[in-house]
C-alpha cells in the first residue's frame, strides 16, 4: 500500500453510485492506492435509475400534472358544449375523474379505514351536486382548482421534506471492506466495529469511524450544516453520511450502522416532522365535526330556504352548494402544516435540529436564555498562557517535566500542556509511573523522582512553609484575577512552578448575546466556575445575570427561579452536566459537537455545528412561524366569513365562490413557503481569549 503524489493522466471512471469521477480526483495527494479491479454496474443499471427517478418525480409532481390536465379538459368540455352535449358531458366526467383522482382516493381511504368524512369528501359532494343541478362547468372548475391547490400543498410539503430525502439519499448501501489485503464490497448493514473500510474520493462515508491511513477533506454538511469542508488526517473521526472530497482513506468502524450519528439524525428529523403543534392537532380533531356540520347545514338550507324564506327550489339548492364550497375549511387546515414543515426544513438545512413542530411554538414565546459557560460560551479547550518556574529551574526544564508527566493523559489540561510544549520545541518522553487522583491531579514518576501536578490541594499548598507560600501567592492571585486556572508542579514537598491556563471564548458569543438582547430576551449565565471568572466573562459579553460556582442541581434551581421571574426559558448547554436544567427548561438547546449522543438525547433543539448564532436564528424562526400561522388562520377564517355573508346577503356565483375559497388556500400555502427563505446571521472565524 503506497502513497502517491504524482498527478497521473486524467481518465474518467465511474463511482459506486454511477457518477463520473476522474482518475486524477481519485489519486489526489495523500490517497491510499488500491489496484484490484472495480466492479462494473450490472446491465440495465441506467434503466433502473431512470425508472426510479421517474417514480420519485411522479410522487412529487404527479398530482400537479393531473390537476393541469383537468384544467385542459375543463376548457375542452366547455368548447364541446357548443357542439355536442353528450360529448361535453363525457369530457366533464373525464375532468372529474382526472382532477379528482388523488383527492378521491385519499377521501375513500380515510372513510374506509377511519370511518370519517373529510374536506375532500365535502368538495366532491359539492362538485357532483353542481353537475346534478345543471352546472357541470362550475363543478369542473371546483375540481380543477381544488386539485391544483392540493397539488401545490403536496409540492410544498415535498419541498419541506427535501432535506430529509437528501439525508436518506446520502446513505450508501454498500461499503468497501479491506480483508487480508483484498477489497470486498459488502452491504452497509454487515459493517461491525473494528472493520477496516476503504473510502475513495467522491464516496460517502458508510459508517462512523476513525481514519487509520491517509488524509482527506470531508464535506460534513449532512451532519453539521457547515458548508466549509473539514480537513481530516490519521486519528480524526469521520461520520456516516458525509462526503469524501479529498484523497482515499482507510477508516476503522467504531459503531454499527444503526448506531451512527447520521442514523440518529434521520430518526430525529422523521420524528420531528411527525410532531405537530397543539393548534394543528386541535384543527385535525375539529375538522371531522366541522365537515359533518357543513353537510348537515347544507341539507338544512335546501329544506328551509324554499319553505321558510320562499326561495325557489333550484336557487335554494344553488345557494346551498355555494355554501358547501365556501364554508369548507381547506385554507384553515392548510394554515399550519406547510408552515411548520417549511420551518423544520429550514432549520435542519442550517444545522439546527428541532425535535418537533411544538418546540417552534415554544421557541416563539421564550423570554430568557440561560447559558452554561464551559463548552458553550467557551470552546471548553484551555490553552497555556503563563509558565512561571521557580528560581532554581528553567522554563524549558519545567515544561519537559510537565509534558512527560502529561503525555499519557487525555485530560483537556494535559492536551493544552502538550500543545504548548510542542510549540516551544520541547522534547519529552513518557513517565515511568502515572496515577490519577480524582478531582486533584496526577502523581508521576520520572527518572526515579516523584512529581505532584494538579491543584493547590494536591500539592498541599496551604501546608507549605510561610516563606515559600508567600513567594507564590501573589503570582497565583494575579493569574486568578485575569480569570485563569492555575496548575501547580511540586517535587519532594517543594513547588517547582505554576502554569496559567485560560479557556477560549467563542468568537460569536458576544454577537449572540447582543442579538438576543435586541430581541427583547434577557440573558443569564449559569456556571460551576469561580465567581471572578464568571463576572469577567459576563461583563465582556454584556450578560444580564450571573450565577457562579453551581452544581448541576443548583443550575436546575436557578432555571426554575428565572422561569418564575421572567417567563418561558431556554437553557443552552453541552448536554452533559446540564442534563437536569436542559430537561426542566421550556426549551433545552444542546451544543451538538458533531452530534454527541448526550446532546441528541437530552435536548429539544441541537446545534449540530456548535454555532451560538443559531440560537437567535432558531428563536426568530419560531416567532416567524407562529406569526405566519396566525396570518394564515386569520386570513382563512375571514375569507370564509366574507364568502358566506356575500352568498346569503347578495348572490355569489359558484365560480367566484370556488376561486375565492381555493384561491385563499393557495395564498395560505405560498405564505407558508416564505419560511424557507429565512437565513441565520453570518459568523466570524477568530477566537477571543476569555
Fold and architecture overview:
51% of the residues lie in helices and 17% in strands. The chain is an alpha+beta fold and 690 residues long. Among the domains are: 103 residues, Calcium-transporting ATPase, cytoplasmic transduction domain A (Distorted Sandwich); 140 residues, HAD superfamily/HAD-like (Rossmann fold, 3-Layer(aba) Sandwich); 120 residues, 3-Layer(aba) Sandwich (Calcium-transporting ATPase, cytoplasmic domain N), CATH 3.40.1110. Strands 14-27-26-25-15-23-24 form a seven-stranded mixed sheet, sandwiched between helices. Strand 17 and strand 18 form a beta hairpin. Helix 14 crosses helix 24.
Q: Can you name the CATH architecture of the domain at 355-378 and 505-620?
A: 3-Layer(aba) Sandwich
Spell out the CATH superfamily of the domain at 355-378 and 505-620: HAD superfamily/HAD-like
- State the low-pLDDT regions, or none: 1-43, 683-690
Rg over CA atoms: 33 Å
Strand arrangement within the widest β-sheet reads 14-27-26-25-15-23-24
Main traits of this protein?
single chain; 690 residues; alpha+beta; Calcium-transporting ATPase, cytoplasmic transduction domain A; Rossmann fold; Calcium-transporting ATPase, cytoplasmic domain N; 6-stranded antiparallel sheet; 25 helices; 28 strands; elongated; disordered N terminus; disordered C terminus; metal-binding
Give a concise summary.
Among the domains are: 103 residues, Calcium-transporting ATPase, cytoplasmic transduction domain A; 140 residues, 3-Layer(aba) Sandwich (Rossmann fold), CATH 3.40.50; 120 residues, Calcium-transporting ATPase, cytoplasmic domain N (3-Layer(aba) Sandwich), CATH 3.40.1110. It is 51% helix and 17% strand. The protein is built from 25 helices and 28 strands.
